[in-house]
Recover the amino acids of this structure.
């Protein structure tokens, strides 16, 4: 049995329940709890607010949280796929059922504000924000300092989740970081509705404030499982945020702290070929432990990515590493073996040795019980190296990068001879290889201001250079928001 707090449908129902007192957890879901109801219930049963926070984590894996019945609507990992495809590193190499083809890989949704694919990430992340606001308000609001240690830790998690959601909204709905550009409405309490777009500086200001508070509140938190955000995970989220703004000293300090204090170890060569299905893996910092109770199957990240799960990746919508990126992986790199070698087969370059159900029955896993990964310590090493290189501390950048590469290749000494842009390019390449399929490629593309050039195994736009700030890589404010929010009547630039 995994030593982890299970995320189940019951937990998700805590955000959708009515009632309090000792029978609270036995209530059937019916409607959203108000902050007042949670606060009142918590006076009788302090576990209520904790259960509500657990419900927020459950929303990250729920199907339909983007407001649709689409089979690509399954929470945060669904938008990881969007980002990986937009980055060009994840290729839709065979398309039988059409998921992702026109709207994402051919950019149609990103140029049409009426598309549901614009609505889905908008609706999902703002739903997480509203849920986090419910918890924050119940615990006294943005400036609260809870007396109870348990409530302090819950407040820290809620603020981190709100910041995480605003960060992804800012990344998906703004071409490039411009502090003065008005990009999103900001809601930091439950009273706010139908707000106008505010400058990116205000969005990032709230993100920064939330994460600084979360890091402080979570100091000393001994979490019950990796499904919960702890101090090091909050530091990791903030490192991504500061990297998007180019604040490299902050990135360096945050990743240094996470590496030094978190107790995580880089996944071994054996582990990176081990399926990526167990949250207990020492290199995983944050994720979700999936069980049969979650009732995930056809509509899931595993279903869309894993050849060994009964769903689309097996049945006709193949997801593969970009052929150009695969060609850049050295033959002695263990990560090359994560992918099926090109042989003229359906499985060419699919991640059949990276992401797989342990039973390895083709199209077999149903329901899904392999876990979701949200953050790994390898990300902190790569961001640490990137920050050091940008700060001109190339010796540290090289040392940090080699610490990771020594687990992946026979001889990492070639890195010693790199400097300047060549070193930054190598760190970017290693980020793409190490984190392929984990939802980080889009963030790295924008952070490094790179250009996408799709390899030959994509179905469209092969060989066309597409810069990071191309409008085709940025979502439109959805039609429903413009129609229903009188304070918003225009798209972002």
């Amino acid at each position: 049995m995994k030593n982890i707090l299970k995320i189940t449908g019951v937990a998700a129902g805590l955000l959708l329940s009515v009632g309090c007192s000792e029978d609270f957890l036995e209530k059937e879901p019916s409607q959203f709890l108000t902050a007042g109801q949670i606060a009142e219930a918590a006076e009788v049963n302090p576990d209520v607010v904790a259960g509500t926070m657990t419900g927020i984590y459950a929303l990250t894996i729920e199907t339909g949280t983007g407001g649709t019945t689409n089979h690509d609507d399954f929470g945060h990992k669904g938008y990881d796929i969007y980002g990986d495809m937009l980055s060009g590193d994840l290729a839709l190499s065979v398309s039988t059922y059409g998921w992702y083809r026109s709207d994402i890989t051919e950019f149609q949704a990103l140029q049409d504000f009426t598309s549901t694919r614009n609505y889905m990430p908008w609706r999902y992340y703002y739903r997480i924000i509203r849920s986090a606001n419910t918890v924050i308000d119940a615990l006294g609001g943005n400036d609260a300092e809870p007396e109870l240690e348990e409530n302090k830790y819950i407040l820290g998690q809620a603020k981190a989740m709100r910041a995480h959601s605003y960060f992804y909204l800012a990344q998906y709905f703004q071409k490039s970081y411009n502090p003065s550009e008005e990009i999103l409405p900001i809601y930091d309490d439950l009273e706010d509705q139908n707000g106008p777009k505010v400058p990116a500086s205000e969005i990032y200001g709230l993100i920064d404030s939330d994460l600084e508070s979360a890091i402080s509140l979570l100091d000393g938190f001994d979490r019950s499982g990796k499904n919960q955000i702890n101090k090091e995970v909050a530091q990791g989220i903030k490192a991504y945020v500061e990297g998007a703004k180019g604040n490299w000293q902050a990135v360096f300090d945050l990743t240094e702290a996470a590496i030094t204090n978190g107790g995580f170890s880089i996944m071994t060569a054996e582990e990176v070929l081990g399926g990526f299905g167990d949250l207990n893996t020492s290199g995983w910092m944050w994720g979700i432990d999936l069980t049969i109770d979650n009732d995930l199957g056809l509509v899931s990240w595993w279903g869309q990515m894993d050849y060994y799960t009964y769903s689309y990746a097996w049945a006709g919508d193949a997801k593969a590493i970009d052929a150009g990126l695969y060609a850049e992986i050295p033959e002695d790199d263990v990560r090359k073996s994560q992918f099926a070698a090109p042989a003229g087969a359906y499985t060419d370059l699919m991640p059949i040795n990276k992401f797989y159900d342990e039973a390895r029955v083709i199209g077999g896993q149903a329901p899904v019980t392999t876990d979701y990964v949200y953050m790994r310590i390898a990300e902190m090493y790569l961001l640490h190296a990137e920050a050091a290189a940008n700060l001109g501390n190339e010796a540290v950048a090289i040392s940090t990068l080699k610490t990771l590469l020594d687990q992946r290749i026979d001889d990492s000494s070639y890195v010693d001879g790199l400097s300047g842009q060549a070193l930054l390019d190598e760190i970017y390449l290693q980020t793409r290889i190490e984190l392929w399929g984990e939802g980080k490629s889009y963030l790295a593309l924008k952070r490094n201001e790179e250009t996408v050039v799709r390899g030959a195994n994509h179905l469209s736009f092969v060989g066309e250079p597409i810069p990071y700030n191309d409008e085709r890589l940025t979502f439109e404010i959805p039609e429903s928001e413009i129609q229903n929010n009188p304070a918003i009547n225009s798209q972002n630039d």
Summary: The first strand starts at residue 90 and ends at 95. Residues 9-277+373-484 form a domain with the Serine Threonine Protein Phosphatase 5, Tetratricopeptide repeat fold (CATH 1.25.40.390). Confidence is low (pLDDT under 50) at residues 1-31.
